[in-house]
């Protein structure tokens, strides 16, 4: 995936995958307020999820772990096995706290693991920290008035 050089008019793109309409709206609203471009997808099938990633080419994917049509682990593995999108950064947002699960997902180059329920500030801070650690410059970093 090619890293973008964002400007104030070109925010970083995030794709939210969650079967909960509430969680998708929650994440979209708070990340958009923080200056990100956010698309959310209801995971009706693994194909629909992968198609959305191919279409949007996000800078970051945030996926739920437990979904009725495909698990977050299946999404993550499928991304890593797809030559076109394999370098797409993926975070998981879930209520599962098992250390074994975190370890297993980390083998697939998971870039973050967030636990539900999550405060809006924690969601935004985790995403900002990821972009800063990976030298993907954010729009507010480019704003000379800050």
Outline of the structure:
By secondary structure, this protein is of the alpha/beta class.
Task: Describe this structure as you would to a colleague.
A five-stranded parallel β-sheet has the order 2-1-3-4-5, with helices on both faces. The longest helix has 14 residues, at 120-133. With 146 residues, it is α/β, with parallel strands linked by helices. It starts with 12 loop residues before the first strand and ends with a helix. The protein has a single domain, classed as Response regulator (Rossmann fold), CATH 3.40.50. The protein has six helices and five strands, in the order E-H-E-H-E-H-E-H-E-H-H. Helix 4 (99-106) links the parallel strand 4 (90-94) and strand 5 (112-115).
